[in-house]
């Protein structure tokens, strides 16, 4: 819709102007820092930071009704800057002018209710939110659009130049970082560090395709992360991991979209999210809290983090019911099909601890949970979802496995509705499906295929045919007719087809 066609009282709010006052705040010593420089950890004490809008309360000057109306009308605007995560500009990056916003088509991913049969099988009502339908095929694009829009703003303001963006990745962060950086050539170049042999071929192909410098490092993600942290500490680079608090702001859009998708009714909703480096669950809690504070939603949904038993430090942390006795201990990860979440020492753990406390407090009850699932359950549920019309990645399978665990443990009950985050596109992880179908999982995964979920192609080549077609070598007419007849007969036999009357 054209700007002049919006109702008079809304028109001025469709394209937001820069506002607010954003600062970095340390989660440990509470010290605050300006945002003119890119900071990742507190210069005083080394802890991770979060971004705060010192003037957040100005957003409460609008009534919840006004906010909902503005956001719903913005949906009708074709202006690129408010077509992605910056539809929620005031909550995500209020200081960023719209002409600095980088929009590659991220956000507003489909929310699809599971079919009746799948819901019955899983034992509860649920939706998948297909975050694999982002530009680089994972939710990481939400955070990257925010981080890169901000860096773009710094560049345009002359505060930084010739940025080298770096990140460590379990695959999707680097795919996303490389894509967004390449869009901003030549001002930004990117380099990514990947654990050698621990990302899928598709994920490796993505940053290579976007022209990033790709470095493979021995070890697992946690090792890569240490190297990247050393680079960010000692050299002039822009860190694009979720340690970068701008990433968190962008990923809050997931919560805002869900609120809008459910017409702002978040009561009786349970949000399932896989936990790796814990940036996403941080953002999801933070997003719902902001909307709640402004009254845009009047209930905070339950949030359930899911971890594989092969990478479950956050689950283990919350096993201890007594808050004072909890102690965070990093774990050594074992191979996981939820490879994008295969992290033993999540960078955002201090953020999680602080936000879970806040979230439960605001909810007036325990409202954040973490459940643990097995590798076997992840694969079985991922494939089952696919069998019933849902393309979920392995992490999406992890969420569905997590929902069944939550139902069993009474963390969720049958009156509630779940939303499962399928955080990436299934095709990135098709190698695991292949291993399942071929019963070729290395023993460390502990996955034994269920025959009813396996599937294989069948080669049809009737033995009595002397010749079959080959590329560049078509058959003669009679030979070809025989080929078509015999091959269709064979298929009909295999499918048990009855002939037409
Ligand atoms: C990064 C990633 C995760 C883990 O998210 P965190 O924010 O690191 O907890 C899960 N699934 C996919 C597909 C990812 O790319
Ligand atoms: Zn500090």
Automatic annotation (TrEMBL):
Pathway in which this enzyme or protein is active: Amino-acid biosynthesis; L-threonine biosynthesis; L-threonine from L-aspartate: step 5/5
Enzyme Commission designation: 4.2.3.1
PROSITE patterns, per the entry: DEHYDRATASE_SER_THR
Enzyme class: lyase
Alphabetical keyword list: Amino-acid biosynthesis, Lyase, Pyridoxal phosphate, Threonine biosynthesis
N6-(pyridoxal phosphate)lysine modified-residue sites: 140
Example GO BP: threonine biosynthetic process
MF term (GO), any: pyridoxal phosphate binding
Domain spans labelled Tryptophan synthase beta chain-like PALP: 104-417
Cofactor names: pyridoxal 5'-phosphate
Catalytic activity as recorded in UniProt: O-phospho-L-homoserine + H2O = L-threonine + phosphate
Superkingdom field: Bacteria
Assigned protein family: Belongs to the threonine synthase family.
Family annotation (PANTHER family): THREONINE SYNTHASE FAMILY MEMBER, THREONINE SYNTHASE-LIKE 2
Name the UniProt record assigns to this protein: Threonine synthase
């Amino acid at each position: 819709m054209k700007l002049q066609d919006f109702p008079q009282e809304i028109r001025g709010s469709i394209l937001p102007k820069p506002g607010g006052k954003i600062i970095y705040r340390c989660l440990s010593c509470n010290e605050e820092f300006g945002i003119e420089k890119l900071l990742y950890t507190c210069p005083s004490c080394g802890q991770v930071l979060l971004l705060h809008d010192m003037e957040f309360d100005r957003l409460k000057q609008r009534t919840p009704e006004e906010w909902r109306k503005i956001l719903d009308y913005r949906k009708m605007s074709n202006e690129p800057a408010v077509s992605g995560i910056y539809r929620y500009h005031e909550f995500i990056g209020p200081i960023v002018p719209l002409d600095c916003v980088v929009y590659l088509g991220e956000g507003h991913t489909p929310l699809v209710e599971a079919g009746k049969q799948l819901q019955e099988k899983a034992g509860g009502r649920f939706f998948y939110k297909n975050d694999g339908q982002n530009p680089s095929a994972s939710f990481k694009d939400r955070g990257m659009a925010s981080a890169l829009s901000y860096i773009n703003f710094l560049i345009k303001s002359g505060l930084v130049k010739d940025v080298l963006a770096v990140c460590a990745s379990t695959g999707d962060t680097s795919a996303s970082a490389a894509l967004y950086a390449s869009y901003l050539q030549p001002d930004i170049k990117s380099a990514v560090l990947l654990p050698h042999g621990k990302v899928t071929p598709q994920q490796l192909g993505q940053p290579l395709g976007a022209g990033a410098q790709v470095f493979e490092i021995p070890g697992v993600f946690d090792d890569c992360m240490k190297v990247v942290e050393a680079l960010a500490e000692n050299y002039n680079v822009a860190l694009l991991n979720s340690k970068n608090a701008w990433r968190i702001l962008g990923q809050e859009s997931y919560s805002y979209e869900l609120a809008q998708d459910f017409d702002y009714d978040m009561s009786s909703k349970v949000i399932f999210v896989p936990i790796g480096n814990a940036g996403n669950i941080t953002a999801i809690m933070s997003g719902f809290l902001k909307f709640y504070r402004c009254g845009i939603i009047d209930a905070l949904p339950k949030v359930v983090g899911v971890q594989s038993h092969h990478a479950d430090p956050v689950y283990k942390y919350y096993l201890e019911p007594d808050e004072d006795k909890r102690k965070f201990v990093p774990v050594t990860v074992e191979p996981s099909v939820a490879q994008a979440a295969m992290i033993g020492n999540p960078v955002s753990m201090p953020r999680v601890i602080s936000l879970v406390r806040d979230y439960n407090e605001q909810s007036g009850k325990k409202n954040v949970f973490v459940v643990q699932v097995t590798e076997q359950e992840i694969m079985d549920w991922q494939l089952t979802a696919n069998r019933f019309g849902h393309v979920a990645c392995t992490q999406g399978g992890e969420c569905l496995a997590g929902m069944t665990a939550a139902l069993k443990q009474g963390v969720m009950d049958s009156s509630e509705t779940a939303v499962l985050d399928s955080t990436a596109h299934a095709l990135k992880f098709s190698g695991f499906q292949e291993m399942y179908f071929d019963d070729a999982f290395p023993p460390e995964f502990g996955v034994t295929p269920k025959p009813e979920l396996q599937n294989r192609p069948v080669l049809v080549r009737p033995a009595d045919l002397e010749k079959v077609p080959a590329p560049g070598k078509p058959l003669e007419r009679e030979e070809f007719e025989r080929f078509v007849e015999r091959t269709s007969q064979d298929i009909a036999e295999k499918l048990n087809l009855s002939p037409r009357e």
